[in-house]
Amino acid sequence: MNANNEEMEMTRTLPATSHFSAGRLRGRMIGSVVCSTFGAVWMYQALYYGYIATPVRLTVISVLTMVLIIWPVIQLCSYSHLKKTDADRAFWASIARPYWINFAIEWVLCAVVVNWLVHIHRFGLIPHFLGVIIGLHFLPLGKLFRQPLYYATGVVMAVGVLATLAIPAGHMRNIAACGIDGLVLWATAAVLLGQDWLSSNEL
Predict the structure, then answer these.
(1) Taking residues 152-180, what's their average pLDDT?
(2) What is the maximum alpha-carbon separation in the chain?
(3) Measuring CA to CA, which residue among 19, 20, 34, 40 is closest to residue 72?
(4) Quick check: 178 and 45 in contact, CB under 8 A?
(5) d(CA 180, CA 164)
(6) Which pLDDT tens digit goes with each residue over 24-83?
(7) What is the C-alpha to C-alpha distance for residues 123 and 167, in angstroms, rounded to an integer?
(8) Whole domain around residue 56: which residue ranges?
(9) CA contacts within 13 A on the Cβ side of 168
(10) What is the mean pLDDT of residues 79-91?
(11) Which of 66, 32, 37, 28 has its CA nearest to residue 200?
């Protein structure tokens, strides 16, 4: 009897709504891990690009990064027993191609732009160009994953990083550009975690 109960628990399905979809729950946590990781990269860049790296600041960034990554990883593990539905599989099949195309375009553009800026010795503009490219790549993701948050992420990142060009070239502009990229990604990760927490409370 206990074995049967355990098997039923391991194979239980979620309520039949996209809000509680196993694929959606896992997808949000994967998105949170990705945003947290790359957000940390930008925050470290802000410290080094702006020549303000200190043991205390590095420690703060590291602790926040660990929290923002470990939390969704734990959640992913807790969702490992949930079964993907046919709707989950069909949804991914319908978006897989445009998702990978968007992914490839983003990385190719980033590589080309970085190489071009290095070639013309405009290193200080790298975080601005990358911020715009990365920000714009979130817009298709918002449509693909039906996640309005990604629209906000893309617009705020792109507009915010462009606004830093009003700052005279130098360390402060580098700090501002990298900081905006990193903070926007961290904020996105935090909102995804908040959405997950609300969903978990309703299960």
Answers:
(1) 94
(2) 71
(3) 34
(4) yes
(5) 9
(6) 888 899 999 999 999 999 999 999 888 899 999 999 999 999 999 999 999 988 888 888
(7) 16
(8) 23-198
(9) 0
(10) 85
(11) 28
CA pair distance 182, 134, nearest whole angstrom? 11
pLDDT tier for residue 11 given thresholds of 50, 70 and 90: very low
Q: What is the mean pLDDT of residues 79-103?
A: 89
Is 11 a domain residue?
no
Q: Which residue has the tokens 């462009």?
A: 162
Question: In a 10 Å sphere around its CB, with 0-12 CB exposed, 13-18 middle and 19+ buried, how is residue 155 labelled?
Answer: middle
Domains in the chain, number: 1
Q: Is residue 95 part of a domain?
A: yes
Task: Please name which of 153, 112, 146 lies closest in space to residue 130, comparing C-alpha atoms.
Answer: 112
Tokens 């590291």 belong to 62
How many Å is the Cα radius of gyration of the chain?
20
100 domain residue, yes or no: yes
89 CB contacts (<8 Å, ≥6 apart)?
A: 23
Q: Is residue 17 part of a domain?
A: no
Percent of the chain with pLDDT over 70: 88
C-alpha to C-alpha distance for 36 and 30, rounded to whole angstroms: 10
